[in-house]
Each structure stands twice: as structure tokens, then as C-alpha cells.
Recover the amino acids of this structure.
């Protein structure tokens, strides 16, 4: 980053995706004047959820602000007083108003976990897996009051591994994103040095290609066995580590037991013929094999496909292989899940 002048940066973030970017900025020639993060909230008697950015800022000795509403007049006034040249935002959780963005002479940039305009929203990494994308990446955009709609200053692409989970992909993208943010800052500085408006740096997004990536809920983790096995397998990867995919079965005593599917793959088509799968119906257990190894539970899915579960988490218990579960469970072929 030789030749780049020292900027005063205000970093805004909350979740773990922002931490590698923050650490890269701490190690850069720039000065971080403060970190703005979401306030900690928790029901009475319970600890608030982890805030990785707060922890990283405290460890680095950077002041932390946590306004309830960043766009409130008193928050804008406080942030204006910090004298930041540029806002660097990632995984923060609030959309910034035009007034707040106007406080910094260079405006704001945002690190987003997809190749925009695809997957605008709070869960781009999960939706890339849900949609079966083979490529994804990160984008650094100039911020506007519209959600993830600014000009793309820089982007980095990467293939998605065939078995990669959302947690694994998020870790990779966060590291890729750290370098992308430093590159974006250099591009802004070069534009200003050349006498150009920093708001014009980057390429406008093609609105016709925009897709949404809304926040997921626990309900999204309930398996619909009428879907194809490939779709369910992608969902398992996309919803790991939260909310994870789960199904239910009724035990001999009539109680329903929740089963989190921790590992699963599409069952071989030559072993479970589509006609037999269709005859059994979605959710029917086709095979329950404890065996001497990990074992498997094969379940009929939609489109004549089947899913082989090899690891699961029974409600209230530890994670275990399918074989371990079957050796202590009445679940047998013919049982219907869902």
C-alpha cells in the first residue's frame, strides 16, 4: 500500500465475517478512530450473544460505540465528531442513512459476501449454497441508502467446494474480503489523487440480475422430504451451523423426537431405484443400517431420490453416527420421518 496516505477510518461491524477485515485494517497504515457495533441485548438472567467485533476491537485497544440507532441525530452527531474520512462497513446489521453516509468525506464502503448483484441481503453465503451456485465471492461496494445496491469497487471470485458448509465458506470469504477491502481503499485514494469524485469509483450493478438473500429462521431448517435429495443436502450445508436442518420421528412411546441431520449425501441411484423410492413416499426410511462402521439411515425424497444420513444429533443428546443412533433406537425401515 505504498503511496497511500493515512486515512481516518470508522469501522462498523458485529459478526465474525468482519473480523479478518478489521485486523487487516489495524495492520494497515490507516488509523481506526472507533468501531461501531450493535448493542448487546439479552433476556433477563441470560448472557448476550457473542459479539466478535466488539471483542476484536477491545483486544486492539480501539474505542467501541454501540448506538441503538446509528441514524439517530445524536448518533450522527457523535460519529461526525470522530472526524473519519471513510466508513468501512461489514456485517453490521443497520442500513445507514444518506445523512450519516455524508458525514465522511469519502462516504462508506461495504464488504459483502457474494458477487453482487446476486444475493443482496443478510444471508448471501447461505443462499449461494441453497441455490446450488458453483461460484461465489466477495464484493466491496460504495454505500448508498439502498440495500447492497452501490457501485462495485472491487470483487473477488472463488469456487464453492462440493461439500463445503456455510461456516467453512464464510471463513474463506472473510479472509478473501480482508484483502479486497484494502484494494478498494487504494482505488478510492487513487481516484481522489487524480481529482475524481470518489462516489463515481466502481461499476454500477445490473439491476436485472439482482437476487435477494433474506435472513433465515429456524423454520427454514425443517426438512421437506418431498424435495429432491440434492436440494436437502444443499440445505444441510447452507444451514450449518445455524439453524441446522432437522426432522422428526415418532418413537414407540408415541413421543416425537427431533433429529438434527449433521452429515448426509445423496444415496446411490443404482442402489435405491426411483420407482421403489416413489412407491415408499417422501420421508419413508428405506434402510437403517447400524453395521460395524458409521452406518446410515436412507430416507426417500422427492423426484425418486434418496438421502443417506450418516451423522445426526438426537434431541437432548450429543452428535453421533447413524450406526450409534440405530443401536439404541427403534427407528427401522418403513418408519416415516417428518
Amino acid at each position: 500500500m505504498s503511496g497511500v496516505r493515512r486515512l481516518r477510518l470508522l469501522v462498523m461491524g458485529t459478526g465474525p465475517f468482519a473480523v479478518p477485515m478489521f485486523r487487516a485494517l489495524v495492520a494497515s497504515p490507516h488509523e481506526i478512530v472507533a468501531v461501531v457495533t450493535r448493542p448487546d441485548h439479552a433476556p433477563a438472567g441470560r448472557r448476550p450473544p457473542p459479539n466478535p467485533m466488539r471483542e476484536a476491537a477491545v483486544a486492539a485497544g480501539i474505542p467501541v460505540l454501540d448506538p441503538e440507532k446509528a441514524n439517530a441525530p445524536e448518533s450522527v452527531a457523535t460519529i461526525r465528531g470522530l472526524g473519519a474520512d471513510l466508513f468501512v462497513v461489514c456485517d453490521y446489521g443497520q442500513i445507514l442513512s444518506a445523512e450519516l453516509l455524508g458525514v465522511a468525506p469519502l462516504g462508506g464502503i461495504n464488504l459483502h459476501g457474494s458477487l453482487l448483484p446476486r444475493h443482496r441481503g443478510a444471508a448471501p453465503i447461505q443462499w449461494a449454497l441453497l441455490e446450488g451456485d458453483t461460484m461465489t465471492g466477495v464484493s466491496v461496494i460504495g454505500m448508498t441508502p439502498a440495500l447492497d445496491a452501490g457501485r462495485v469497487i472491487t470483487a473477488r471470485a472463488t469456487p464453492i467446494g462440493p461439500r463445503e458448509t456455510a461456516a467453512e465458506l464464510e471463513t474463506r470469504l472473510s479472509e478473501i474480503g480482508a484483502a479486497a477491502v484494502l484494494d478498494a481503499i487504494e482505488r478510492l485514494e487513487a481516484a481522489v489523487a487524480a481529482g475524481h469524485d470518489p462516489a463515481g469509483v466502481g461499476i454500477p450493478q445490473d439491476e436485472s440480475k439482482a437476487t435477494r438473500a433474506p435472513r433465515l429462521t429456524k423454520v427454514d431448517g425443517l426438512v421437506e422430504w418431498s424435495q429432491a435429495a440434492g436440494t436437502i443436502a444443499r440445505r444441510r450445508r447452507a444451514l450449518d451451523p445455524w439453524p441446522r436442518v432437522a426432522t422428526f420421528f415418532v418413537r414407540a412411546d408415541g413421543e416425537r423426537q427431533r433429529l438434527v441431520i449433521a452429515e448426509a449425501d445423496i444415496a446411490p441411484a443404482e442402489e435405491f431405484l426411483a420407482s421403489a423410492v416413489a412407491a415408499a413416499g417422501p420421508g419413508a426410511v428405506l434402510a437403517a443400517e447400524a453395521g460395524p462402521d458409521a452406518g446410515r439411515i436412507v430416507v426417500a425424497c422427492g423426484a425418486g431420490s434418496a438421502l443417506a444420513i450418516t451423522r445426526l444429533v438426537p434431541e437432548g443428546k450429543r452428535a453421533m453416527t447413524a450406526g450409534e443412533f440405530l443401536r439404541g433406537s427403534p427407528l427401522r425401515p418403513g418408519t416415516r420421518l417428518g
